[in-house]
Amino acid sequence: MPSQQPAAAQRRPSRRRVLRTSVAAGAVGVTGTSTIASAAAAAPTARTARDSGRRGSSGVRLRWLGIAGWELTFDGHRLLIDPYLTRQRYTGPDGKADLTRKLEVNHRIIDRVLGEHLAGAPEFVLLTHGHWDHLADVPYLLDHPAWRDKEINILGTETHLHLLTAMGVPGKGRKHRPVLVSGGEVLRHPLQPSGKRSRADYTVEVVRSLHSQLGGYGFDPYGTLTAPPSRPRTLGDLVEGGTLGYQVTVGDRLSVMFLSGTANFAAREVSGATPDVLVLGSSGHAAVHDYFERAVSALGRPRVVVPSHHDDMVTALDDPAVHDTVNRRVVDQLQQVVGTDGHVVDPRHLEQFEL
Question: What is the C-alpha separation between 103 and 137, in angstroms, rounded?
Fold first, then answer.
């Protein structure tokens, strides 16, 4: 059953109530806080990602990179979540996952996406877990000519950072900063100046989460690491190593919760959270009880929900057919769960939209 809101959260003024009053009066805007107890903003109509790009007014933009990858931009800031662009085949002739396949990096598509869509290096790369379709491209991205001389913070668990170390991150002479997190951290950007007090441009709150559980009540490859392994060579070498979610709060304007990497979550870890926008992993939850309903309820029924991890994972990003591989039944199911008080955005690959 979903966790109940704590008494303090129940007494706190409702941002949704304030916002509904503002919308009724013709006002546009949201308010918020910098921690996980921030609340949700309204979206005036259900819409596609293309419509959202015209109607949004927060100045905060999302771009789906396919699978569970996302770009979040605002005010010159950029964060990436699980930036995996290669989309290699992962099944054998029998159609079942073949974890002995060698890891591939599609340099062509990564170069193209960086050149045409990701205009600059991110300040943060947020990793949800260690599987290939989340982490495998990160070393190449960090060493790309467009990124290699920047200072990029890479957040992940001990296992995720050990895997990246084994894959050559941060790299000789690079300024990149692997940052160990485990859930509960509230990180600010920029750093607090020494001896001074200043307001953060945004915060990143880390929440402990759970991996999807499929029809057999499990998933592969699982495991954790306490030291860097040999350099990963196959899909199976990139183990889960714990799963994380992230809430990014932009000043007092908007909060976005990314439970985007898997289709599961730890309800008690997000109890009291009321994000404006929920990006929700939407496949692989056959063994998870009432997943959509529990997630939406536990997070205070966000007014905007965006599905994630619901395409075929392999069709190339520059193939026009990639948009046809999306499971749009997920969009309909989420809209039924959200109801008339909320809206589900149907994102399109690489198309930016404003929240």
Answer: 10
